[in-house]
Input
Amino acid sequence: MKKSYTVRRLDRRYTGGDHFQHRVEISDSIKNPDRTDLYRRMREWCRDTWGASVEVRHHRMFRGNDLDHNDHWCYDNGWYHYYYIYLKGDQELMLFDLKW
Output
């Protein structure tokens, strides 16, 4: 089965690179509505696995608030062109890859 996402290793040049090591990229959501459904299912799985989280642009703001802050993952909705899921480290990525 072909992978329907790519993984980018992050550094400080990327949004979220100061806290997350990996970004799962699901693109072409306009051309392929199934990707939107895949992203939704991936986000639900992350929420069920590690708990609720926020969008990456809000992650820093909520870092002091334990209710909204999640060290393991966050996401970015990208306005219909791409979807991103940010993962903290290699353990989170390995678990994600095993599932998807």
Summary: Strands lie at 6-9, 22-27, 73-76, 82-87.
